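Troubleshooting: if your tokenizer reports a length mismatch, compare your output against this known-good record of 132 residues.
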Amino acid sequence: MIQRGGSVIIRALDNVQRKTIEPIIRQKVRQGAKVFTDEYNIYGWLPSFYEHKTVNHGQGEYARDEDGDGKCEVHVNTMEGFWSLLRPWLRPHRGISQERLPFYLGFFEFLHNIRQRGSNALSGLLTLLVAT
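Known-good structure output:
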């Protein structure tokens, strides 16, 4: 999950089913918030708790301008962009065990959320360690 202009939350899940993902979303996303997804059926429950909008990738829809201002407000490009950063970062670590994958994901989540890369990330890490 990612908040536009905000933080990301990454979790390695045993499966991609509603019973697995719903508790995480309900814990991390404020009720009534806008939530944008594709049309995967596990998100069918979202309108009961959130302002839920979808894009239909199967029909070639990737972004939609709902209010006619020329800006496509409804899209999942923020999350897609995040994945496009994560995949190549993981690629050199071929053969990551399922046991260790959460550590790699947690570290990448941390790097994304402090908005620093390379040697600059060290100061963010030290700040976090000193504060705790």
